[in-house]
Specification:
single chain; 202 residues; alpha+beta; 2 domains; four-stranded mixed beta sheet; elongated
Length: 202
Amino acid sequence: MRLQGRSLVKTFLTLWLLVIIHKSLLLKVKRKSRTSLKPLENAKAMLLHMPDEVFARYMRPLIESHGWPFADINDLVHNTVWLRYFDGFSLKEIYEFRWHRIRLDVPIQSLHPRSRDVMEMMIDDHVNDNPTAIRRNVKNSKKRFFWHMESMQRTGKMIANPIVGTAPDGFHVLDGNHRLAACHVLTQSDTIPCDAWIGRPA
């Protein structure tokens, strides 16, 4: 009986090791297949919860400019440009967002401090002509700002929905800083009315 018990334990351990090896091989194959995809295809396959419109407006231009260095949603964004473009969110957090397009009145004070600072710098730089980091770091920012302002004055709406991620520390503007800043100047209100794509944790 003792020998039979040892044999069963040995068989169980062998099967357990085979399962672990199989899972490890599958993960390697999965990572390899993803890295063999083109950057846009790779990102789209990974961010499977992201609506096509959000991906096209937010992700596609950035990937075309900076590439897509990730092979897995658990990869770190630190020391990449994506830390900035994800506004501090991890890749996994972006992946886990569930997106909804809704009408939203955005109180300025509900914005994440970083998004609020960007808006204030844009207005100070482009409207008040006080040079800020925006002038140095964001290409054609002033031209884009006034283009959106003129477009909203003419049509009464934004050309595209801002894309925002939610977190306990406020709304993170992922795409649409120029539109929101221009709208704020036009409305002269502490609340910005807009249709927006909102990403919320699952």
